[in-house]
Specification:
The complex is a heterodimer of chains A (334) and B (354).
Chain A: H1 2-22, E1 49-55, H2 61-75, E2 80-86, H3 91-103, E3 108-112, H4 116-128, E4 133-136, E5 147-151, H5 153-168, E6 173-179, H6 185-198, E7 203-210, H7 215-228, E8 234-237, H8 240-252, E9 259-264, H9 272-277, E10 283-286, H10 291-302, E11 311-314, E12 317-320, H11 324-331
Parallel strand pairs in A: 1-2, 1-3, 3-4, 4-5, 5-11, 6-7, 6-8, 8-9, 9-10
Antiparallel strand pairs in A: 10-12
Helix pairs in contact in A: 2-10, 3-4, 5-6, 7-8
Chain B: H1 28-38, H2 40-55, E1 58-59, E2 62-63, H3 68-93, H4 101-117, H5 123-146, H6 152-171, E3 176-177, E4 197-198, E5 203-204, H7 205-223, H8 225-235, H9 237-242, H10 247-273, E6 275-276, H11 284-294, H12 306-325, H13 330-350
Antiparallel strand pairs in B: 1-2, 3-6, 4-5
Helix pairs in contact in B: 2-12, 3-7, 3-10, 3-11, 3-12, 4-5, 4-6, 4-10, 5-6, 5-10, 7-8, 8-10, 11-12
The chains are: A alpha/beta (334), B mainly alpha (354).
Amino acid sequence: MRKTTRSLFAMTCAAVAIAAAGCGTTSENTGQVQQQDPTKACKGPDTRYTIGMSQANLAEPYRVRMDEDIRKAAEKVPQFEVLFADAAKDNSKQVSDVENFMTKKVNLLMISPNEAAPLTDVVRKAYNEGIPVVVLDRKVEGEAFTTYIGADNVQIGRQAGEYFKNTLLPQGGKIVQLKGLSGSTPAAEREKGFMEGIAGSKIEVVDTADGEWERSVGQQKMDALLKAHPDIQAVYAQNDPMAEGAWLAAQAAGRKDLKFVGIDGLPIESGGIKAVEQGRLSATNLYPTGGEEAVEAARKLLIDCQPLPKEQTLPTELVTKENATQVYTRLNQG
Amino acid sequence: MTDRTDERAPTPATQPGGGPPAAPPRSSRAGTVETLFRFQSFFGLLAVFVAAVVFSPRKDGEILFLSSDNLFNIVRAVSEIGIIGIGLTFVILIGGIDLSVGSVLGLAAVGSAVLMINSDFGVLSTVSIVLLAGVVFGLLQGTAVSLLGVQAFIVTLAGLQIARGLARMWSGGETVQISYGDGPDQAPMTFSLLGERTFGGVVPIPALIFAAVAVAAILFLRTSAFSRHLYAIGGNEKAARLSGVPVNRVKIIAFGIAGFCAALAGIVHAGQLNAGSPNDGIAYELDGIAAVVVGGTSLAGGRGSVIGTIAGALLLGILNNILSLNSVNTDMQLLIKGLVIVAAAALQRLRPTS
């Protein structure tokens, strides 16, 4: 085994040598942002433009709908061709997706990042190369993007909390929270906002479970929560699929009195608005995809040569039984 | 029992397992066929490369696939899976499997971030601790496999869960962002080199690390007695034991190497992405195994090579790249990659067992 030891030593040396060779490079990570001239990418209405859309994953119906909204809106702009990439929840894959768009020399990058920090560098690289970047839903760090379009998760959480405080449980009561995947920014923000929303009321969150944004996990966690806290009156789920899962668990346990509130309000057959309409959820909170607005932003940047605000916060809306049908119809027209 | 050992030292004086001392003379035609199969992954790699050039989108006459930026992007993108795959090859050569490598990558990424950001460790101590943790994790798994006699699949399936759980606990369930600077709660600038490019701004450092690991692993397998033992155990464990191969020790070390490689890939991951997320590396073990299989290593053990794995990883990386450059949708990409893996494995079945 002497030889083994020697070889292992050689292996380590080789690794160290290569690592040392890498030192002394020019710094790319210092966070330098070049000012982008908005008119440079703009070539007016007579050019064809290729747009790359990097989606974090297509496992969530919300993101499928976002791509769908972009596709639909882009079809109305004859100059646009949109290419779609799906990172399948993998930060590394999304970095590659953006690099591939750069290789293909897209005229504009749209991205809904899987996570902020890991995607910041590659987005900055694209931006510094002069490619306008439209960031959707989840942010990147710093300033190296052209415009950000998204709804405010804190605000939506707050809206949900206020609904509990003012309408659902005005006398107070015990509830549980089903949280999105721990480690994801929206999960933290939707919790923060919710706590602000119920502040000052007699509502007590007796337990929080990680439902990973998924219906099946929501159901499974709710099974346990019902056993542990038989005295709860309502459930706040950070998205509609988890709320639906929790509803199924409550049905199975014979708890037909429980009330459920979700977030997202996707205007699709299996989405939250329909669930409210059909009485499974008391309410949901509309979290717009921003797909249409992103294409509109691209049109302004590339065709109209207009500057854009750095941030565009999309309005949210509470959906209850009263307005569900009307909201559903409105979001699916055109 | 008389498996070809692709990377063994050229002097197989005493083959453990009681096989013939040297390969029996074969007709040259059989030899050619054997060579073709032996270098199957290279021909595969070459074929995919040529296909990528042919099917590459062009812009202003430039073949986009062949641009140096793009080629290095490919190597950068496969570097983590490549490093993991190299470690996995050692375990698979002895007929084992390691399902924990993706989670260990996540644990290492989180560990790197937490140690530098929250605990104010320097680069050298962070890297050493994380690598050591990876090795220890692997050694423990190897011990459970060899001394307790639990199947590697089960042990490392448990390891997958344990490492993921540790990563979530260590990070508090949150992504730990790595920001650089001299202050407290900041990582030293040196670590940011992992996200950098060098030599004229084209060669990514992760690609260099991948290359270093590859060279080291190949040299290690060519020069050490350890390599003969690996192939012997994979070929026939009982026979290897009877002929004096320290089977348990070799097994434990093989798992240790896989753990080391996974941890190294995790460090690279954290450096490339400026963050350690508890959800990093989910399902990477499957990509790693795919690279090993496409590289011609038999999951039954005893046959295969690290070079094959490297070729396999590059092949899959090029495939990913060219499919994306052509905007083939993700569902179709999965389908095509699946077919390539099956085809590679099927070809291996046809290979003559000399």
